[in-house]
Design goal:
Length: 86
């Protein structure tokens, strides 16, 4: 069975977004909720998964994670969440 690769965005209780990479979105979200995720989500509690997209390779997913984190502003992230495309 091929491993899956996902990029996801979480909305936090402070109305901010956290973007990450994983091979299992639900498992990773649970880790964030339990305080075993990223340092950012330990300080900014996630409330829901607002976006996820599957990729064929880890490399493609990591490139998209980088683009979302470093190239998109908040308005563009909201557009991505709402439309699935930007």
């Amino acid at each position: 069975m091929d491993k899956k690769h996902f990029v996801y965005i979480l909305e936090t209780e402070h109305n901010t977004f956290y973007c990450g990479y994983t091979d299992d979105v639900e498992k990773r979200f649970k880790q964030h909720l339990e305080g075993r995720g990223a340092k950012y989500t330990r300080a900014n509690k996630p409330i829901k998964i607002v976006y996820q997209k599957e990729f064929q390779t880890k490399s493609e997913a990591l490139k998209e994670e980088y683009r979302i984190k470093h190239k998109l502003n908040r308005k563009q992230k909201i557009e991505l969440i709402n439309t699935g495309n930007i």
